[in-house]
Amino acid sequence: MLYNFMNDYNECAHERILEAITRANREQDNSYGLDTRCERAREKIRAHLDGAASDVQFLVGGTQTNTTIIAACLKPYQGVIAAASGHINVHETGAIEATGHKVLALPSADGKLTAEQIERAVAAHFADETAEHMVQPGMVYLSQPTELGTIYRKAELTDIWNVCQRYQIPLYVDGARLGASFAAQGADLSLADLARYTSAFSIGGTKLGALFGEALVINDPLLKKDFRYHIKQRGGMLAKGRLLGIQFETLFTDGLYFEIGRHAVAQAQKLTEGLRARGYAMMVESPTNQVFPILPKTLLRELGRSFGYAFWCAVDDENDAVRFCTSWATPPEMVDALLGSIPAKQ
Amino acid sequence: MLYNFMNDYNECAHERILEAITRANREQDNSYGLDTRCERAREKIRAHLDGAASDVQFLVGGTQTNTTIIAACLKPYQGVIAAASGHINVHETGAIEATGHKVLALPSADGKLTAEQIERAVAAHFADETAEHMVQPGMVYLSQPTELGTIYRKAELTDIWNVCQRYQIPLYVDGARLGASFAAQGADLSLADLARYTSAFSIGGTKLGALFGEALVINDPLLKKDFRYHIKQRGGMLAKGRLLGIQFETLFTDGLYFEIGRHAVAQAQKLTEGLRARGYAMMVESPTNQVFPILPKTLLRELGRSFGYAFWCAVDDENDAVRFCTSWATPPEMVDALLGSIPAKQ
Amino acid sequence: MLYNFMNDYNECAHERILEAITRANREQDNSYGLDTRCERAREKIRAHLDGAASDVQFLVGGTQTNTTIIAACLKPYQGVIAAASGHINVHETGAIEATGHKVLALPSADGKLTAEQIERAVAAHFADETAEHMVQPGMVYLSQPTELGTIYRKAELTDIWNVCQRYQIPLYVDGARLGASFAAQGADLSLADLARYTSAFSIGGTKLGALFGEALVINDPLLKKDFRYHIKQRGGMLAKGRLLGIQFETLFTDGLYFEIGRHAVAQAQKLTEGLRARGYAMMVESPTNQVFPILPKTLLRELGRSFGYAFWCAVDDENDAVRFCTSWATPPEMVDALLGSIPAKQ
Amino acid sequence: MLYNFMNDYNECAHERILEAITRANREQDNSYGLDTRCERAREKIRAHLDGAASDVQFLVGGTQTNTTIIAACLKPYQGVIAAASGHINVHETGAIEATGHKVLALPSADGKLTAEQIERAVAAHFADETAEHMVQPGMVYLSQPTELGTIYRKAELTDIWNVCQRYQIPLYVDGARLGASFAAQGADLSLADLARYTSAFSIGGTKLGALFGEALVINDPLLKKDFRYHIKQRGGMLAKGRLLGIQFETLFTDGLYFEIGRHAVAQAQKLTEGLRARGYAMMVESPTNQVFPILPKTLLRELGRSFGYAFWCAVDDENDAVRFCTSWATPPEMVDALLGSIPAKQ
């Protein structure tokens, strides 16, 4: 195989990260995230939050991060509103339910929820005379970008935030690929905006060049207390927590996190343009680092010999929608090679 | 108010049940369902099962019964397939999720699931290369009758049973209103059939003239072991368990359970016919003890002064679908009075 | 067998309760505890609370009541402090753990906890630098009377309450046999005191002459909100909730609840005195309706032909501690008959 | 500070591990543990198992590994037997309870359980007529070495295994520091023995020179099926799973894992001997890489300026028990320096 576009975690880590770990290797430090490197990483992240008094916690993985913050927010009889296509509803093997909570799935064609849709669902619950026989909406989960690579714009997020505020429901944004969202065309949501208009959000490391790790930024003061108990209980507290600190410190030094996002998005968008120029339609318009073209099965079979991609869904008898994913590690020449293997649509 | 058709648990219990409890009042007996009356009730129920070696357990309520059997069947990473309108998916405040399991909701217009639909969902899961990132279908939940009063016929149930057998997935039938199903026109499923073609099913008492109580019939030998631990842990083990025994013994003496179902269904069907004769359509065709007519809002407001009913859903600007429910206690003359208050559709 | 002293739920219910249910049988009413009878029972109970603005909720069973209130109080990383002999730690098949919480068991010889003991445990937790690696004490569970029939006096309860207040930890008293505590010699804790010095407490019906049922009195305003969601989710919301209302209304009319407690305690204490007069020691001094004598095995074998009792624990090669339990239903002549079968200790 | 003996995860990783990751950095591979490096690591580990057909799974952390295997083994009404001092009972913030299960803690002075003790507990449960009101012992948890650094010998483990087999209860050994056990004086348990005499055991990486990671060896065929669902649900499935593969492949190449254990134990035992030679007693005799001396508080205050250690417990007014921990990274000269700072006991 020439190159695998299957996902954005096919390689290990950006070299600067490995170098930083190697440099710090024999330095003794505290454990469980109480070390100097996590503290420095926290400062580096907070510097982007425009003065918000947010807490920053580091966890190992995404499923863990989502589960930990969601279980921390909800009372036993509450559930979390999410797009039906949301990661927590589909691809975490019921991790949310395993903590006792229902995912209240709302339909979405492009992976996004709207403020109206959320308000309708919440208002309908509280208007029902038998509400207590049903799961109470206790939280809203979004992801930025979504599972389909789409992004929320600032006006959309603040509308949702206003609904959440009105009903006193926490809003959490899963930023597993957050770095890619900043580089998208039309993107107008900054880290500082996320600190302002969410109760908590995550900054994903795994898909942005780290070995692993998610930074969880907690803005709502009520969620901060005792949060480390939650992390420990859900298995997210790394003994050598400094590894998370070193990685996020590196990512937030000299803008590496944003640079990685820009590189990945640039490769994906070059691929998108090339595919469009060849006459292929997209299943969904993604401005980030995932590309979802509809391609003939015969072509896909051919491509599969040299390039990895993910099957997404069947479109018709002759065409499938697939996903190509780019990352910090994707060489531009591999995008060229891929495009070079794709003839114009007949 | 003249009469409340809101639901089938507006009164206490069939008089024969109260008399039986009163008669047995000072008899000392064992506790927690290990008494002579539960044993006799078990025998009375088993006599209907055509020789099946089923266990019969008694629990207090329906949510509890569903939760207990479902949590007993599933492994941590498994979920239960149910109609989106199913009681466990909507009206149990997330009791299933509180035990750690996702409800895998499938769409249904009439409250029923089909064998094809179930097979498609299960097969799709196991065919997926990333199946382990998703909740595994580990059980199928039906209700007889369904939330919308519809019933499964024998051929439908055996088709579903065959799918479940093929994938080695337990099949559970929630019979909260089971007694009403036997009296429905076209009904061809007996208790013996349920013992043959399900892993477990419940025989609801609350809605069939008991003060409370559900009999859980466990057919699958693998589910029988240690089941009383489950009942105790989920809060369903009544100290004075004999109360459940006395009630089910009474219900299954001289066919009272079936007689109650026939009475309730007869009243509901008389109501249905009367409404149809007056030109009103039904939201769904229910052959059991729930009637779902579509009626003008102006008429409903008027009716509401004398009769209780449940709002079901808005149909258009001028009409709502509502539910009238009948029971062992519904006096035929009250159905007449209700119909007498409903003019022919204009 | 002449009479079974095995426990206090060997018979059904006090006759006044059955009569009240029978009288109300065909009265239509609302369901799920929103009926007129529950409302009246609430008022009758509140009349004993000296003006406290407590909520009163009715649940079916004791395990359910304990589980529901405890799970409602605790955050995911918190546990509940209880005596090692406490019902929730031993005899509820892990129902508390099934909701995700550890029981933090403290040793106790007589079933009681002391304020010092609780304070030491709580203070030690919060003083530990690695506290977040351990379950945080989030609640205190007592029972009145305890599993061993002993009772808390007012000074003991207020001391514990003060510790709980100091650490902002809810205090819950399980009153499964509460009625018996009021009749004990030396008892000085009223219902009004319990409303004043606990966050919540239960008033047990099952062991005090009801068919079933526990009243949960919630004093802490923070625990009141949305509590019916908890009840529904944990399976404790009875469809025909009026049955709980009728029973507690009856128990709290003309002092029946207290009368039942006095009768049961009087029989138990007569038995205790008779045993002492015959030279037998008690394993524990219980002033309520449970008696724990140490008796020779040979005598016990003999007694077992005519009287039921519960084995408690082995004392030595020749003697066991056993439990005799009395109730509203225990005929005084049966206590005489029992004593008549017990010769003086040799 | 000269050197921190606080624990065995004060540094990052053995250099060979970092080098291996750096070498493999840009190699594309599959994700979620389905990669070539995990496969190679599995083979390397299996080569030590004397032909056992064990599965090997890789997880990120220890709490996670324990929680995942324990929740996978137990039915909802079962609990896990562990020493009261066991990690799962004390230091995992109730992670086991959060999955719904009680830890059935047995007393232990040296961190070990005996076969007799376990058999007594299990037999007592099943002999109880009211067993179903109590949590059923469904699993046994040991750790090798224990929290106190002590080790099981082969005869002890096989005795426990025989009890477990007799009652058909899975036996799991937590090997967070397993590498240290092999180097202990008197150790006679090999990896192959663990594969033979346990249902599952873990091989800890974090405390043996890895950045992070635990290998879970599953010997019982019944536990193998669908295990990756469990890992995903509990948050233990690393996207870049190859990192675990590379690390364990390195640890099990040229005996590095055992060499690291030997180095750590040698330093600890040198420290132990030095302390004994100076007249100090040990709180517990640990033959592995943890040392628990009883030292005067005045001396400890002095030592604390140059060396890190963990406070363990107060012994008397003048002495505390503390813990010194050694690892792959501990320089022998630092042990000399530490001993050099400790005068002979007066």
Mean pLDDT score of chain A: 97
What is the count of helical runs of chain A? 15
What general outline of chain A do the C-alpha atoms trace?
globular
Beta strand % of chain A: 15-25%
Percent range of helical residues of chain A: 40-55%
Write the CATH fold name of the largest domain in chain A: Aspartate Aminotransferase, domain 2
Low-confidence stretches of chain A: none
Q: Largest beta sheet of chain A, briefly?
A: 7 strands, mixed
Largest interface: A-D, 51 and 51 residues
Q: Taking strands numbered 1, 2, ... along the chain, how are they ordered across the largest sheet of chain A?
A: 2-8-7-6-5-3-4
Structural class of chain A: alpha/beta
What string gives the helices and strands of chain A in order? EHHEHEHHEHEHEHHEEHHHHEEHEEEH
Pick out its properties.
seven-stranded mixed sheet; 346 residues; 13 strands; 40% helix; Aspartate Aminotransferase, domain 2; Aspartate Aminotransferase, domain 1; four-stranded antiparallel sheet; 15 helices; homotetramer; 2 domains; alpha/beta
Give a summary of the structure in a few sentences.
Chain A has 346 residues and is of the alpha/beta class.
